[in-house]
Specification:
By secondary structure, this protein is of the alpha+beta class. The protein is built from eleven helices and 20 strands.
Amino acid sequence: MRQVKIQHISNPEAFKKQLLNWSQQFDEVIWLDSNNYAQKYSSYDAVLAVEAFTVFQTDYFDAFNQLKEYQSLTNDWIFGYLSYDLKNDVEHLSSNNHDELGFSDLSFFQPKKLFFLKGHVLETHYLNLVEDELEQDLKSINDLNYEKRDYLDNNIKIKLRIHKDEYFNKLNELLSHIQRGDIYEASFCQEFYAENTTINPFETYQQLNAISKPPFATFLKLYDKYLLSASPERYIKKEGLKITSQPIKGTAKRSLDKTEDEQLIKSLSEDIKERSENVMIVDLVRNDLSKTAIKGSVNVEELCKVYTFDQVHQMISTVTSQVNESTHPVDIIKTTFPMGSMTGAPKISAMKIIEELEETKRGLYSGAVGYFSPDNDFDFNVVIRSILYNETNRYVSYSVGGAITAKSEPLKEYEECLVKAKAMREVLEG
């Protein structure tokens, strides 16, 4: 059982910084921040889950069934992530690429302490065994003075896992698969990394978030592994019996010149290639949602709408469905995972081909972070625009990708990758 307390916060922005700073003492931390972005369907401005009461970690084998059991048994708030490689539990697939990060395929925990912030209202949910710590915790949070510290201790040198010429070769191979009709779209990703590197994860996240301000920002710490995410994309949300998925496909850079920036929005919204990328994935998402939907309830609420973020413009569609009360929430995720925007179409063929051509095991990149509520609701982002860090191995990594279709030009796709990588590179190279 949890003790719930509601109170007024006079300065939410300052409180958010203090709250995240305070959380750094714990081994298990998940922080979700919408950055007050005006995108539809946001439940909270920010959420913090800390200090595990129970933990569930596993590799991909039978992972969704085990998660279903854990979620049903706890019947409580659980927070965690689904790595991309859970595809191997859903389909007869494998992941054999290079992996220096070493994240588990799936990890969730039941937090002792939970904070939900919406406007000026703070809601705390403390497990009964720690409820007497709440007042002292709030005092500690409010007394914290946030002091900016150096977040890099050395001159980071970013390396490419796939060099430019090799990238073009791989893209041409992908295009030949498309021309042969094996697939008609695939999300192809490449890794940028730094070895023997130490960063301050908290400060690095603050920097990344400050220059991106995305609606699905995440700071995740699980022991020696960190995710610092400036994700603009929601994977899937369940609220009551309504399911919402919001795939992103289509990217354009920003301009400081207002007229030029408006022209970039207009060009993106009218770009035939970008729209066709998005529509293909919308069809895939509709098909995935239909597996658990009440017949006839799958609906495209928004098609190819351009949203603006601090770093880029993005084309986003919103697909919804209704489910029966008896449908298990984990089944809704299992039948839609991995998300279409990070795989391609047809999904299984695309996943097989990108596994052959990519050099890095995706792991948490292009997976999802989020939570299940005691009411069987959930909300998960897509892990993109993110820095991943293994503190023990002193290894820092970020990956970027793009949707490859018959109309793709390798040089333009490469340039789009660099646009998406800009914020992470800026932060890591100071």
